[in-house]
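Annotators were shown the component list below and the corresponding predicted structure, then asked to write short factual statements about the assembly.
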Amino acid sequence: MAKGRRLSVQELTIGVLGGTGAQGRGLAYRWAKAGLSVLIGSRDAARAESSAAELRAATGSDTVAGADNAGVAARSDVVVVAVPWDAHAATLEPLRAELAGKIVVDCVNPLGFDKQGPFRLDVPEGSAAEQAAALLPESRVTASFHHVSAVLLADGDVEKVDTDVLVLGDDREATDLVRELAERIPGVRGIYGGRLRNAGQVEAFTANLIAINRRYKAHAGIRITDV
Amino acid sequence: MAKGRRLSVQELTIGVLGGTGAQGRGLAYRWAKAGLSVLIGSRDAARAESSAAELRAATGSDTVAGADNAGVAARSDVVVVAVPWDAHAATLEPLRAELAGKIVVDCVNPLGFDKQGPFRLDVPEGSAAEQAAALLPESRVTASFHHVSAVLLADGDVEKVDTDVLVLGDDREATDLVRELAERIPGVRGIYGGRLRNAGQVEAFTANLIAINRRYKAHAGIRITDV
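Structure shown to annotators:
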């Protein structure tokens, strides 16, 4: 998506790398339901197409398709990165050309897990999103959708997802568009959450939400008050 | 406060190190209004007593006094650390004996500021709270009150502060008591937020709330949904 032209998400193709995982599939489901054009990406094109077929059946949408991650990156206007952290760099590095000039939405949480639960992993670049920005210098990298519950996204009986979605980035046009994308999920508000250099704590805060979920037996989200 | 005995915050003396700063004074004001015994600490005992006198006048409380930080640490049951980050280690290190066995509530946000606003500072221990735990091995260290707006706390016209307060720590009795302390502020819910090793991102998230405040001209807080 070229800078400067004001577009609505309705006109765009939304690609989801790692779209067969829980978070990617949940987001794709909501966007498909909202009538957006969605491409599901996976390392394995057949798996991606099978996920896309499931989504078409579940939503009645005819604007969902699957392809391998490189194909999705090439054919999408906005590309959501929802791969596991340990596949993050290896997925993005070869896609630099395909993702040039495009809005990239990094959802990845660099977390470790042990007997005491999840914890923040150190990332040399500061965060997954800043690693994406370093690997994709010609892309417009934002960070978002870290906290929204995959369980609630995927549950068709949940009409409204009760959470705000923070959108971080240094490019106002890009963060505004991603906020609009967030708000295609019923119940969600898209809230600007700061510059990309402050993405690390937003990613890591997912560990706290997991702790809250365990303590309170919840699918916790966050709302920003006074906004 | 010795471990094992179940106490209510109403029976305890709450000390606030750095109680003459904005965050400390705002918390002390709300706790004084709620009828708790509060000790205001400062490097300068005269400044602490002058702040305490202001709080007595503002709240009608006769259970607020001031002293130097060491005196407050010695005489309090629960000790809130609300000093600036650059005074954090130097304030706590000499108070190890005074704080032994007590619940310590670290509110400190290690942030830097430049032209682009606030950003997370690297802390060798991982967070201010973990630094406190390293310096105070005999204390029961928790982390809390990072996000609550000092402006709203200090404003007597604000009847209810619309926010949840996350309380982190590895000692269930301590985090439960600090949650109770949070809930003495009208409008506030105290929510368990995870182990101390996950405090860094909660502290640093204050940078994101400052960015939100600037963008939306707000005094932002957070609510945890589905809890």
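Statements collected:
1. The first strand of chain B starts at residue 13 and ends at 17.
2. Chain B has a mean pLDDT of 96.
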